[in-house]
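REQUEST ID: PR-0412
SUBMITTED BY: lab tech R.K.
PRIORITY: routine
TASK: structure prediction, single protein chain
INPUT:
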Amino acid sequence: MNFISTTRTLRKTLSGLVPGLLLAAVSLSAVAQQRPGALVNKEDSIYVRQHYTKIERMVPMRDGVKLFTSIYLPKDSTKTYPIMFDRTPYSVAPYGEAYKTSLGPSMLFAKDGYIFVYQDVRGRYMSEGTFVGVRPHNPNKQKPTDIDESSDTYDTIDWLLKNVRSNNGKVGTWGISAPGFYTTMTAIEAHPALKIASPQAPVTDWFMGDDRHHNGAFFLMGTFAFLSSYGQPRPEPTPKGAPAFSAYVTPDSYKFYMDLGPIKNANEKYFKGQNGIWNEMMTHGTYDAFWQARTPVPHLKNIKPAMLTVGGWFDQEDLYGPLKTYAGVERNNPASPNLLVMGPWIHGGWARSTGESLGNIKFGDKTSQFYRESIEFPLFNHYLKGTPDPQLPKAYMFETGSNQWKKYDQWPPKNTEEKSLYFHPDGKLSFTPPATASAPDEYISDPKKPVPFTNEIRIIRGSDFMYEDQRFAAVRPDVLVYESDVLTDDVTISGNVMADLFVSTSGTDADFVVKLIDVYPDNAPNDSPIPTTKMGGFQLLIRGEVMRAKFRKSFSKPEPMVPNKVTEVTFDMQDAAHTFKKGHKIMVQVQSSWFPLVDRNPQKFVNIYEATEADFQKATHKVYFSKQQPSRVVVRVLTK
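STATUS: complete
OUTPUT:
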């Protein structure tokens, strides 16, 4: 083998560290929030050590920058193996002599025999170079210094094929969350040896729908906690992550972020201008060229590897990513192998749980195990080892409510019909449009008393707000509630959910949060995994989304609302696959704050990232539901 030697700097750094303690040095905030790992047990750890040899190399890129790469080789060199490649900004730890306790998307791969490669992306941890969060793709490479994540992947794969023994010339890539973004980039201008790529909960657009913004509204709580470590500068290669934020002083996030005041205070009080990615968020408050360049979707053309895109219906961070990545590939490459899997999971749940339940909700099966054993593993084996084609559908979707897997030859399915859930007086909701004019509903939104996003006291966001009982919000005077009659038949929705509101405000800007909810009957059986929960009347959040009204016409050129003028505000609430069962009800809630999940809107047309306390004002919002102004939630109903 012609392995290049590990650099002197790396050897010097590693020599003074205890290998077993290195993982603890990685920033726990970044890892815990965004880097879900595979299921781990003691037997897996023993198996890895017994069957794999670990080596570490600095792999040169076309511009001379070297990227730290950790390689796990099967000890049996009598066979050839495909390469499984994961690029990450969250560290390939442990470094040095310590081994990972599991390998691959699951240990099924390790026990079947693969070469596993993990790489710190450019500018992170032990890799050289400068880090750029969601680095833009460069389709016009003219010289060696014209690099991006696609070129770094290409160069690494090329080096691996030439320098790693016993490889069979085929490569697969995978990654969850930010590594999912890097996986998407591997498929753009892909190396010919790359046969399959699996972006899983991939970061795809930090302004439109991923964990930093939704429809232009800033996701404060998760972004602050995450970027407090992830956005800190790294002057030189190091195996250590930046420390997590530790100055909360209260266990109550609602109180902490209210005490923080206007969002600009985060820099003044805590970051002191030193957090580069946070500064980018504060500087680019619209969907300008900066953000537009950072989504890979426009570049998902001429994709050659097979694509397996994976997401979770209850993903608190990246529900947007898998849906838009799949759609982008499908739109531009209709003949390429392009599969979508969506299950009843939180962020990365398919890799780190059994998938039997979430909170109070049971799914009746080990959905994650099914995915790993019946979808992911056989598909990779087919493309990388030539095993029989598992004959998977284009879209393998878990339908919550009915709790069953559905197979479709396209997504959304062909056999759906667009229907609207219309708002009516007295809090009624139905598929029948309003026939007469009615007085609007109204509520006062007060930035000093925003609607909380959860009923729990917590300092870190967590995932359970995605499937939390919404009764705590329904009783607030600043939350409108619309509820259907008891359903006499099952209603199954499969596809995109859209909010279409006719609203007015006494201010010049506003947020509108719409939540689609499954209301259980009062006599629902108490079959929750949490014994103390009474499921009668439970309000299960199916889909919730926010829209910053100033972006209603353009995310690049915001416009103020005209005070007290009725205005249509339409926005994407993402997809869903759910059965509202007979005997249940369908509910829609409308509110104008979701705090501190989403930052407070001053309800005044200003640059919110520069707003002062004086800019925040109460406003009266009205929701209209007449024949001419029919506020509604648009769904796709399965017809058979």
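NOTES: Confidence is low (pLDDT under 50) at residues 1-38.
REVIEWED BY: pending
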